[in-house]
Specification:
Strand content: 15-25%
Number of strands: 10
Oligomer: single chain
Helix content: 25-40%
Low-confidence stretches: 1-21, 25-30
Mean pLDDT: 89
Shape: elongated
CATH superfamily of the largest domain: Periplasmic binding protein-like II
Strand order of the largest sheet: 2-1-3-10-4
């Protein structure tokens, strides 16, 4: 059945099928009061925690599609039936807000991320920042692809601010999202990785991090926006109010996010 559907050339229908396969939901189980959220990979674990709490309090289910902000943006623009976009930046939700895909006035900053440099290679543990970046022992430095990954764009800003981007360019390994940078660093495939603080707090059991001064990169403000598909869903609107609540913000601080 699905093989036949894949052959249909209607882009919107194609994207919808791919989306529901991705989140593991059969097409005949789509319910009007369920919520479909696209979330930047750095926020996946916090969202799963919030999901359990929200579903317990409300008679609804949340289904999640996670990836780089850029890839999720492409899904939304191409018609994926999503209700909410939790981006890793502000730029893409702003673009959606002023397109026909998002609801104007619904966008807000739900968290601000922090950038760290991470390693599990013990021979680097005694190094200081920023000298660690130019150590002769380093072969591979991981960052999210700056074109699609907000934390990767921030990492690129750091390297340019330190005037070492051109020197380190041959050593840079671009990843499809910031979680992948953490995983590759954790298992020693990278000498250094530019990661989100949330990944380190949630997943780390070893390794060392260096705090990156905020003066070296623009604040990683992460915006949420209600999409057209969710504008008539009370549950989607309620979730955004829940996300903006003081109780949730206090909880997100424990995951490494900051609030102005």
């Amino acid at each position: 059945m699905f093989l036949k559907l894949f052959k249909i050339r209607n882009n919107l229908f194609y994207v919808s099928i791919i989306f529901f396969l991705q989140i593991g939901l059969p097409l005949n189980k789509i319910l009007a009061d369920d919520i479909y959220i696209a979330v930047a990979s750095n926020f996946l674990t916090p969202l799963n925690s919030l999901k359990k709490s929200f579903e317990t309090q409300n008679k609804t289910k949340i289904f999640i599609s996670s990836g780089s902000s850029g890839s999720l943006y492409s899904q939304i623009i191409n018609g994926a039936p999503l209700d909410i976009f939790l981006s890793g930046d502000q730029k893409l939700p702003k673009k959606i807000e002023f397109s026909q895909k998002g609801i104007k006035g619904s966008r807000f900053t739900y968290a601000t991320g922090k950038l760290l440099i991470f390693t599990t290679n013990k021979f680097l543990f005694d190094k200081n920042f920023p000298q660690v970046l130019t150590s002769n022992n380093i072969k591979y430095i991981g960052i999210g692809n700056p074109k699609y990954v907000p934390y990767g764009n921030a990492a690129q800003q750091v390297l340019r601010s330190l005037n070492v981007f051109d020197k380190l360019l041959p050593r840079l390994i671009l990843s499809k999202n910031v979680n992948q940078v953490f995983i590759m660093s954790y298992f020693g495939n990278l000498d250094l990785g530019f990661i989100s603080k949330s990944d380190f707090i949630i997943k780390n059991q070893k390794g060392k991090v260096w705090e990156v001064p905020q003066s070296l990169y623009s604040p990683i403000k992460q915006d949420a926006i209600l999409l057209n598909n969710g504008k008539h869903k009370k549950e989607a609107i309620d979730f955004l109010s829940f996300l903006a609540s003081e109780h949730v913000r206090e909880k997100l601080k424990k995951f490494g996010y900051v609030f102005n």
